[in-house]
UniProtKB/TrEMBL annotation:
InterPro entries: AAA+_ATPase, ABC1_TM_dom, ABC1_TM_sf, ABC_transporter-like_ATP-bd, ABC_transporter-like_CS, P-loop_NTPase, Type_1_exporter. Residues 376-616 form the ABC transporter domain. Its main location: membrane. It is found in: Cell membrane. This is ATP-binding cassette subfamily B protein/ATP-binding cassette subfamily C protein.
Length: 627
């Protein structure tokens, strides 16, 4: 068992590709990529809120540019203090510079706060814009995309990271802007003090920059190396804390195993983490030592300039402060670049997802379907799931007359659910066509078709809403919502479920929220049936609508469906063949093909697969009947 876990541990997370790219990319490649990226994010910010973006950029640029004013004011203070004369006179001479310095520091502080405020306003708007766009696009994507692992992985990744990424990128763009403005201001001030100082500064900063990049890269190596183990730990943590697994963790006495695995991985990660931290510390120490050498070179140069009288003492003092400030700015810039690049890759991932979602948008022909959908024809339909080797449907043809009840039966995996989804317009066939009153599914208005269809799905969703909302969902605008709700609830047996709930139909059906409750499998199924009936649609598709129901409710529901079927078309999928015998026609599927069709009597007379299944089920009941 443990070996299995080790195997899973080493599996790459889909986004590790991006982490690896970061680790493999050189510093200068990052430098080239970043301006484009910052431009993209700032454009997005601009389209989200012009005022906040302008305030953020303007205030940051001016605040950082004031660093230069502060340095020149410092120089003026030194000059005042170093003139010949008594102390009061020197202080007086330094006062204008000191005032300018104080004013520049105060203004810079205020501007920075203003920039923070603008950023605080802008970030959530940006995050919302990005997430809203993603959710808006993804909910319009064709259903089959959700069976495609690659799309699903990217979607999952973006769901986790897109909002946070754009938030980080905005900060990075602004930090970078601040670094550029701050460095330009310092460089300007240094050049005014003495032209040789700027090249010397660059020399001194190189070791610190190297140390920052090396340390960042080691950090990413650590992230890559242990993301498999971290993900595994996350999974184990979820298994130990989630409601869905809580019962089995206890009944299968899984606690020692899960805890043991979690601890083993945790120790493994911690040890390796420490080893990397040691290497980072070494790199940083080496960088600091080299930076100290670089600084010593600058100071030696400054001393030489002073000694030879080519630089006044005040300018040398200011230069020392400026050089320290510049080293800080450049060190910060290298870190921002590394961080920015990584986030940039995730942002690109989000842009790719949006592009793919646009491309896979459900196609919509726009032709209104007939009001009662009329005759539905399935013609030579083939459908293969993404990545599957065999088609799930292979040349299926059938006709469903308006108002008919047809049943699809067959072994597990024979293609019944897939065919029902094709008929409901949820999957587009690879070849062949489905027509509704002569209108091809490729030309039909999909919203119109959905409005005329109700699907009681095999794996229906247990919406974490109230019981009423669970039934009326998607059709809140029904003209007779109250009456229709009563009818659907009573026909499906859901009304009996409400009677036992503390707040009746208004009870929240999710125990993980305060005041919420859980239903049994059969009670949920009644709600799902009520949802289908409430839709009041001319085509009702029922995929195993009674799988979890007791015999009495099952019988009642089939009766309801038959009553409901008056002037409506019903496609019924069930393994309970006793309920199928009343269908107008029965289609038997096998390996994605229709192999038998006819009424119950015709199929029994045929003595094929259907007759065999039916006799098996009937004999099982006969065997138990003496009890
Ligand atoms: N999302 C999917 N991705 C890949 N293959 C799928 C997917 N869903 C179903 N299949 C495959 O398609 C075939 C038909 O599946 P389908 O669900 O239509 O069968 P079914 O007759 O409804 O089965 P059951 O009686 O068990 O509900 C099966 O071989 C199944 O493994």
């Amino acid at each position: 068992m443990s070996d299995d876990l080790h195997e899973i541990e080493t599996e790459a997370r889909p986004w590790e590709a991006y982490d690896s790219t970061v680790a493999a990319t050189g510093f200068f490649a990052m430098l080239r990529y970043l301006p484009r990226l910052c431009g993209q994010v700032l454009r997005l910010a601009w389209s989200t809120s012009r005022v906040d973006t302008a305030a953020l950029i303007g205030l940051t640029a001016v605040a950082e540019a004031l660093t230069g004013v502060g340095l020149l004011a410092t120089n003026s203070v030194f000059e005042g203090l170093l003139i010949d004369g008594p102390s009061p006179e020197r202080v007086r001479a330094a006062l204008p510079g000191l005032t300018l310095l104080v004013v520049s520091v105060v203004i810079r502080g205020v501007l920075r706060q203003g920039a923070h405020w603008a950023q605080a306003r802008l970030s959530p708007q940006l995050q919302r814009a990005v997430e809203t766009r993603m959710l808006g696009l993804v909910t319009q994507v064709e259903l089959v995309a959700f069976d495609d692992g690659t799309f699903h992985d990217r979607l999952h990744r973006c769901r986790q990271r897109a909002g946070g990424t754009v938030y980080s990128l905005l900060r990075i763009a602004v930090d970078l802007l601040g670094c550029v403005a701050g460095f330009a201001a310092i460089a300007g001030a240094l050049t005014v003090l003495h032209p040789i100082l700027l090249p010397l500064l660059v020399l001194a900063v190189i070791p610190s920059a190297w140390a920052a990049v090396r340390s960042a890269r080691l950090y990413y190596q650590m992230v890559i190396g242990f993301s498999g183990a971290n993900r595994r730990m996350e999974t184990l943590g979820d298994l130990m804390t989630e409601r869905s697994s809580a019962a089995e963790v206890r009944s299968y006495t899984m606690r020692p195993f899960l805890l043991g695995e979690w601890e083993r991985l945790s120790r493994h990660v911690q040890a390796a983490d420490l080893a990397i931290e040691k290497r980072r510390a070494t790199a940083q120490a080496a960088g600091s030592a080299l930076a100290a050498v670089g600084t010593a070179v600058i100071f030696a140069a400054l001393g030489l300039l002073l000694y030879t009288g080519r630089m006044p003492l005040a300018a040398a003092g200011t230069a020392v402060i400026a050089i320290r400030a510049a080293i800080n700015v450049l060190t910060q810039a290298t870190q921002v670049i590394n961080y920015g690049y990584e986030n940039g890759l995730f942002y690109q991932d989000y842009l790719d997802l949006c592009a793919e979602a646009e491309q896979r948008r459900m196609r919509d022909g726009g032709v209104e379907p007939p009001a009662d959908l009329d005759r539905i024809s399935v013609r030579d339909v083939t459908f293969t799931y993404p990545g599957a080797e065999e088609p799930a449907l292979n040349g299926v043809s059938l006709e469903i007359a308006s108002g008919e009840i047809i049943a699809l039966v067959g072994e597990n995996g024979s293609g019944k659910t897939t065919l029902a989804k094709v008929i409901a317009g949820l999957y587009e066939p690879a070849s062949g066509d489905v027509t509704y009153g002569g209108v091809s599914a490729r030309l039909i208005d999909l919203d119109g078709l959905r409005g005329h269809t109700a699907v009681i799905a095999q794996n229906f969703t247990r919406w974490p809403f109230t019981a009423r909302q669970n039934i009326t969902i998607g059709r809140f605008d029904h003209p007779d919502a109250v009456g229709q709700f009563e009818r659907a609830a009573s026909a499906s047996g859901a009304a009996e479920v409400f009677a036992r709930l503390s707040k009746g139909a208004e009870t929240l059906l999710d125990p993980s929220y305060k005041g919420g409750t859980e239903l049994s499998g059969g009670q949920w199924q009644r709600i799902a049936v009520a949802r289908g009936l409430f839709r009041d649609a001319p085509l009702l598709i029922c995929d195993e609508p009674t799988a979890s129901l007791d015999a009495k409710t099952e019988h009642a529901i089939f009766e309801s469906i038959r009553r409901h079927a008056v002037q409506r078309t019903v496609v019924l999928i069930t393994h309970r063949l006793a309920s199928v015998r009343y269908a107008d026609r029965i289609f038997v599927l096998d390996g994605g093909r229709v192999v038998e069709q006819g009424t119950h009597a015709e199929l029994m007379a045929l003595a094929g697969i259907y007759a065999q299944f039916y006799s098996l089920q009937a004999s099982a009941y006969q065997e138990v009947s003496p009890l």
